[in-house]
Design a protein that fits this description.
Elements (H helix, E strand, L loop, with lengths): L1 H16 L3 E2 L9 E7 L5 E10 L6 E2 L7 E2 L2 E2 L7 H7 L1 E2 L4 H5 L1 E4 L2 E5 L1 E3 L3 E3 L1 E6 L7 E2 L4 E8 L7 E8 L34 E2 L2 E2 L5 E2 L7 E2 L2 E4 L2 E7 L4 E6 L7 E4 L34 E2 L4 E2 L4 E9 L8 E10 L2 E4 L15 H11 L4 H4 L2 H11 L1 E9 L6 H4 L25 H7 L4 E11 L9
Parallel strand pairs: 1-7, 2-30, 24-25
Antiparallel strand pairs: 2-3, 3-12, 4-7, 5-6, 8-9, 9-30, 10-11, 12-29, 13-29, 14-26, 14-30, 15-21, 15-29, 16-17, 18-19, 20-23, 21-22, 26-27, 27-28
Length: about 450
């Protein structure tokens, strides 16, 4: 009786304030995962965490269990506009393994690419939780983040990405009372591309102006996007990889409108408050074509450790971010990031000088400095960011910006164009989803702590 009384009160409250509700048809049980915090000297303490899947992947339905969203279109009855949609529709609990191909085992999480159940699911986007209702926040200035990864089955056109974004720890519930689902149900996503394909943003539906995708049966684009700072610790398949900071003028999650969102869905890619390009360090793009890949210095046929260090100018957690340093550990050996061989661009770490030199050498638009550069990225890291673990293919640019020559009409011998050894005809999603349906990525052994504390150094 009390259960139903609570549900009635909740529904009445939601009707009064236009509520984006949690579903009650499938229990939301987060898969568990452990990670570690490390101190100087390498002493690490295990932490118990959970993962949740992004709201965009979830079943969205009304109180009678009918779909609010089918294929790539909204129900005209339940979702005539953004606010009514949030009032009428609920985000349902997820069946992680059977529907989404996501499983955990102690300190590891496996993301399968294609999962066939009642329908076909492609990839996933997951968030690390501190507890059932809050995302785990990471504060990484003067710290390092490390993890093990298996990308052996990720071929051209796939991206196993592990990154940080400036989401609200509660998924936006406190700032947007109409969001009653919260972090538990994977709400509040944002990144530096200001994505407009999200079904719910800032406690509202993204129905107004929604245009179904012409080449993707599951997605579309609405009038709104969701912007925030993004630190790409890891974007990779077995052919190429990049580490990329993306600062924003305002690093916390904020909603944008139509073309002011920038990115691929807008008329001007650079119109938003965020830097969509970032300042990337891709070893192949920086001139070393034999550093990363099958049988290369970092051999992607085997598991390896990825270490990202965030160096500050004064060696404290309150200092200004001055460099982002990458190390790998494989077969007991520590491998430093490859050195740039691009004329005019020296070194092997991301610094403000490196970014300035790279933009000039590649003749790329400098949206990085327009939005505050490395210091602005440091501000976001200082305020805390949420960990995202994902696997996806690319319906806009076929992942060629990561693993091939891009733009495809540019001279591949021109500095910055060649980013990996994949063909410019690779990465077509329909081909990738057919040919590599059994692909997967495994992230494991996540550690965070003082510099040089999360891995063993061998001389």
């Amino acid at each position: 009786m009390y259960k139903y009384l609570f549900l009635t009160i909740l529904l009445l409250t939601c009707n009064l304030v236009n509520c984006q509700k949690p579903g009650a048809l499938n229990p939301e049980v987060h898969p568990s995962i452990t990670w570690q915090e490390c101190q100087e000297g390498g002493k690490c303490t295990s932490k118990n965490g959970e993962i949740t899947i992004d709201a965009n992947w979830r079943w969205v339905h009304n109180d009678q269990g009918s779909n609010c969203y089918t294929g790539n279109t909204w129900s005209a009855k339940d979702c005539p506009d953004d606010k009514t949609c949030a009032e009428n529709c609920a985000l349902e609990g997820a069946q992680y393994s059977s529907v989404y191909g996501v499983t955990t085992n102690k300190d590891a999480v496996r993301l399968n690419f294609v999962t066939q159940s009642q329908g076909k699911n492609i990839g996933s986007r997951l968030f690390l939780m501190e507890n059932e209702t809050n995302y785990q926040m990471f504060y990484l200035l003067n710290q390092e983040f490390s993890f093990d990864v298996d990308v052996s089955s990720l071929d051209c056109g796939l991206n196993g990405a592990l990154y940080l974004v400036s989401m609200d720890s509660d998924g936006g519930m406190a700032r947007f009372p109409t969001n009653q689902a919260g972090a538990k149900f994977g709400t509040g996503y944002c990144d530096a591309q200001c994505p407009r394909d999200l079904k719910f943003i800032s406690g509202e539906g993204n129905v107004d102006g929604w245009v179904p995708s012409s080449n993707n049966p599951n997605t579309g684009v609405g009038n709104h996007g969701s912007c925030c700072a993004e630190m790409d610790l890891w974007e990779a398949n077995n052919m190429a990889t990049a580490v990329t900071p993306h600062p924003c003028d305002t690093h916390k999650q904020s909603m944008c409108d139509t073309d002011a969102c920038g990115g691929s869905a807008s008329s001007n890619r650079y119109a938003s408050i965020c830097d969509p390009d970032g300042c990337d360090y891709n070893p192949y793009r920086m001139g070393n074509t034999t550093f990363f890949g099958p049988g290369s210095t970092v051999d992607t046929k085997s598991v390896f450790t990825v270490v990202t260090q965030f160096i500050t100018d004064d060696g404290t957690t309150s200092g200004t971010l001055s460099a982002i340093r990458r190390l790998y550990v494989q077969n007991g050996q520590v491998i430093s990031q490859s050195e740039s061989t691009v004329p005019g661009v020296s070194g092997n770490e991301i610094s403000q000088h490196f970014c300035d030199s790279q933009k000039e050498a590649f003749n790329d638009p400098d949206s990085f400095n327009k939005h505050g550069g490395l210091a602005a990225m440091g501000d976001a890291l200082k305020d805390g960011m949420v960990l995202v673990l994902s696997l996806w293919d690319d319906y806009f640019a076929e992942m060629l910006w990561l693993d091939s020559s891009y733009p495809t009409n540019a001279d591949a011998s021109k500095p910055g164009v060649a980013r990996g050894g994949c063909s410019t005809t690779s990465g077509v999603p329909t081909d990738v989803e057919s040919k590599y349906a059994n692909a997967y990525v495994i992230y494991s052994n996540i550690k965070v702590g003082a510099l040089n504390s999360t891995f063993t150094q061998h001389k």
